Amino acid sequence: MSEPVTNIMDLRALARRRVPRAFFEYADRGSYDESTLHENRAALARLRLRQRVMIDVDNRSLATEIVGQPVSMPLAIAPTGLTGLQHGSGEIHGARAAARAGIPFCLSTMSICSIEQVRAATDTPFWFQVYVMRDRGFTRELISRAREAGCSALMLTADLTVQGQRHREIKNGLAVPPKVTLRNLFDIASKPRWAWNVLRAPSRSFGNLEGRIGGADSLTTLAQWIANQFDPTLSWQDLAWIRELWPGKLIVKGIMDAEDARLAAEHGVDAIVVSNHGGRQLDGAPATIDVLPQIVDAVGGRIEVLFDSGITSGQDLLKALALGARAGLIGKAFLYGLGANGEAGVTQAIEIIRRELSVTMALTGQRDARCISPDVLLRTS
């Protein structure tokens, strides 16, 4: 009998066994020397929590709001590319699990299932993440499709106008849609459940880009396509154009600097995500938790500050809340759950973090997730 799953790292171990190496490492690894990837986790681990006792912590509440949306806990599922190749129909499973849990799900432009496929399979509105392309007509079309699907928020990712190199993707010969080669034959053949789920899914390529990539069937051509199509001229002035197309809630993801946070607030976005793309873009950037306090100070409550890159436990989430985040987003933790056990695994990941957050709140003397302050952290200087 298998051991019980007790934390996110247990789900990671299962996903590693059940997902072909190229796709598992796409989710798991970072860019260049992966120093930022590792620092995201190390910086969170360095923060110590202040244990409190003899405080009434019965009837704890984790409920809050994110960009005006009531949620059951301060957590959302971040946009992740190739989700449907961690597990067939992965985006649909993620959206359904998030809806049941009462938290937002954000669909990526680089998803395997399209906006329309996810909308047809779910009843709850989801967020959509957009990249700005050189072909602004295509970007306009993506935003229009998100509006037609009833998406409740648009998330503009600002930190991938140029792609950081991820060595493992090149070494693994990552291909979309997946190809059986001599190199990966045994790996895929040893994972029949994964293959069966992917074959049954409504899409095995980039659903939102169908007919636009033109033969991008390996990492090399995909990287070339990104280099040719993602627009490095993106600037703050483009937000006015996006606002014309999208009157709803607008979130900018990829903020790592106080000055950029102030600019975001001045340009009228509803929220920002403090994110270094999970250590997958600028290697050598600081950990997100280390820059979070100065970014919160810079915006002064004018806009909501969300946090990602490194959350793998409820303790991590509590630390981000303590330093001023309204909520956290999970990417890797979500994908580990999905790869480990599909929709049920996503639910496991969410509920693990929910339980850990609730217990950690109790042991630090907290009853309301909306009122977490820096006082829960032990001052070491």
Structure description:
- With 381 residues, the chain is of the alpha/beta class.
- It contains 15 helices and ten strands.
- The protein has helices spanning 8-18, 21-28, 35-46, 90-101, 115-121, 136-148, 167-171, 185-189, 192-200, 219-229, 238-245, 258-266, 288-299, 314-322, 332-363, and strands at residues 64-66, 69-71, 75-77, 106-107, 127-130, 153-157, 249-255, 271-274, 304-307, 327-330.
- The strands form two sheets. Strands 3-10-9-8-7-6-5-4 form an eight-stranded parallel β-sheet. A two-stranded antiparallel sheet has the order 1-2.
- A hairpin with a 2-residue loop joins strand 1 (64-66) and strand 2.
- The longest helix is centred in the last third of the chain and has 32 residues, at 332-363.
- The mean pLDDT is 94.
Task: State mean pLDDT (0 to 100 scale).
Answer: 94
Low-confidence stretches: none
How far apart, in Å, are the first and last alpha carbons? 47 Å
User: How much β-strand is present in the residues?
Assistant: 5-15%
Q: Structural class of the secondary structure composition?
A: alpha/beta
- The geometry reads as globular
Q: Provide a count of the helices.
A: 15
Instruction: Please provide the count of β strands.
Output: 10
Element-level helix/strand string: HHHEEEHEHEHEHHHHHEHEHEHEH
Radius of gyration, CA atoms, in whole angstroms: 20 Å
Helix content: 40-55%
Report the major sheet: 8 strands, parallel
